[in-house]
Amino acid sequence: MYISPLNIEPSAPLFVRTNVKLAQISADLDRAKGARDVMDGIPGHLRREERERVRDALTDSIARALHNICCGMEGILEDIAETVDGEKPSGDRWHSSLLDQLSLPTSVRPAVIDDNSELRRLMRFRHVFRNVYGEPLRREDVLSRLKSVEETVIPNFLTGLEQLEKYMKVDAGSPVPQASGSEHDDGAGP
After folding, report:
1. Distance between CA atoms of 31 and 11, rounded to whole angstroms?
2. pTM for this structure?
3. For residue 119, what are the contacts with CB-CB under 8 A and spacing of at least 6?
4. Residue closest to 6 by CA, chosen among 149, 189, 137, 111
5. How confident is the model over 164-176, as pLDDT tens digits?
6. 157 contact partners, CB below 8 Å, separation of at least 6
7. What is the rounded distance in angstroms from the CA atom of residue 9 to the CA atom of residue 69?
8. C-alpha–C-alpha distance, residues 109 and 163, integer Å
9. Mapping DSSP to helix (H, G, I), strand (E, B) and coil, where does residue 103 land?
10. Rounded to an integer, what distance in angstroms lies between the CA atom of residue 20 and that of residue 38?
11. Burial tier of 177 (Cβ tally within 10 Å: 0-12, 13-18, 19+)
12. Are 112 and 91 within 8 A, CB to CB?
């Protein structure tokens, strides 16, 4: 279920922190969709070179928003790994290991994400974005990633978060562990 702005019922400090990150993800998604809409409406009276310059700038804007969305989602997953599982991966392949970790259920939580190839593609896109060094991104690839994020990645991600929240709310066996701070931590940070 896609909710805008993105939001999960805050039954624990983890989900208060998650909602802060989801609000940023929602804003980045809105920026990317807005840039795509502007790209679709570029006036025909502009010279071809001018239209391409505008399209390139909008493509870069969408790519930056996708990068930010990916970082936000990864931050949420890191928080879950640390708060609920008690550990997050490290090492050279920690990004991939994080997805592996959270795609499997544990004794304290359900799988948070499916082993979604679209989320992995988004992370590969982020890697390319970070390492293009001035080379233009392919507009078709950027728009394809945006469509995937909008139609598949975010809805699946929200479903997993909602399932985790329900599981943790129902689990009466023990309180939700805190990532840091006191037992009275509201998750809002300093």
Report:
1. 29
2. 0.82
3. 73, 99, 113, 153, 156, 157
4. 149
5. 988 887 763 444 4
6. 73, 113, 119
7. 20
8. 9
9. coil
10. 27
11. middle
12. no
